[in-house]
Amino acid sequence: MKKKLIAALLVGLLVTSAAGCSSKSPADSKEEKPTTAQPTELAAADVAEQGFDYYDGAMQYKDVVAKLGPIPILDKEIKLGYVCKAFENEFWRMQKEGAEAAVKPLNDLGIKYSIDVRAAQGETDEQGQLAVLNDMINKEYDGILLSPISEGNLVPGIENALKSDISMTVVNDAFMPHIGVTVGAWHLEAAELAAEWVNDKIGGEGQVAIVQGLPKAPPARTRTEGFKNWFTENSPNVEVVAIQNADWDRMKAKETVDIWMKQYPDLKAIYANNDTMAMGALEAVKAAGKLDQVLVVGTDGTSEARKSIKDGELAATVDSFPYYMSQIGTEMLVRKMAGQDVPKVVYSPQAVIDKANVDVPAEEIIGWTGFLAK
């Protein structure tokens, strides 16, 4: 019991993230690495100790496939679950669609399974998400994908799943050291990609601001710090004049930026931790008549964001291709259940989408060719 309590408390101290498609490795980052010690019984204690964005054993998805080869055929049909965040956000609806879309091609390869994808009522509904996980455990699912709302809300369920020998894989968001494999977007690199894009567009000088997501969510913290620190290290003539959390909420983001439009008349760009907040920020910029002055950049690559880019309003989004991310997560869980040595950190692809490439198919941008068959 004491060890479980220590593990649960330490989970709340982790600084995490995930994904990227550039050739650089986490070890190349200039960020200071977390040094939180972890109990040795945690499956990913070494990842927690190094910090998710800096883990030296992390691999890009394409490199994992090249190393492991075709997906092994399971010796029985299995039932999988996916505990998602909240379908009010299009990003998570896209994750759901991707996870469900993976069933047919994997079944066609001889990997027989079905999947139940469910979510909490909202992106702050931590207890509701835990209830979904507990229900899947009680129904004795063979494997479960998880996208935790926070670093601690699913710990009790995860501990019960481990006791029941249920295989698990995290797909994006809060890293859990109890679980041996995490697939998702490398949030630090996403922030750096956004910062570099903004810096280029504003000529390396001026004022920018950040709309942060839910502060207890690791991606929100990492994207915020990564964006801010990029300018400190690479473009000191750009000043981050404001950072305010809007908890992934569109209206809160709009209200925040409404104030900024008056408070910072020289603001040149706003970076939002997700596209939902970016669209709220965009509404405020448009209402202030500053669409030609203030660039708004989001994160996720939702269809609304892409349409806005096509319409010449949203400047850009860092697309982490959630439709394919959940398919990659499913593949890694299946490989893990088949006995393959899947890396503890698997980065899924991401890229900046702007008016120059918004019409290019996602498959072409990330090089997606489907699952590798025997």
From TrEMBL:
Sequence similarity: Belongs to the bacterial solute-binding protein 2 family.
Species name: Alkalibaculum bacchi
Principal location class: other
Translocase listed as a keyword: no
Residue ranges of the region described as Disordered: 20-39
Example of a GO cellular component annotation carried by this entry: cell envelope
GO molecular function, one term: carbohydrate binding
Domain Periplasmic binding protein: 81-340
Family matches, as CDD domains: PBP1_allose_binding
PROSITE patterns given in the database record: PROKAR_LIPOPROTEIN (PS51257)
Signal peptide as annotated in the record: 1-20
Protein name (Swiss-Prot/TrEMBL): Monosaccharide ABC transporter substrate-binding protein (CUT2 family)
Keyword set includes Signal: yes
InterPro entries registered for this protein in UniProt: Peripla_BP_I, SBP_2_dom
Keywords: Signal
Location of the protein in the cell: Cell envelope
Annotated PANTHER family: D-ALLOSE-BINDING PERIPLASMIC PROTEIN-RELATED (PTHR46847:SF1)
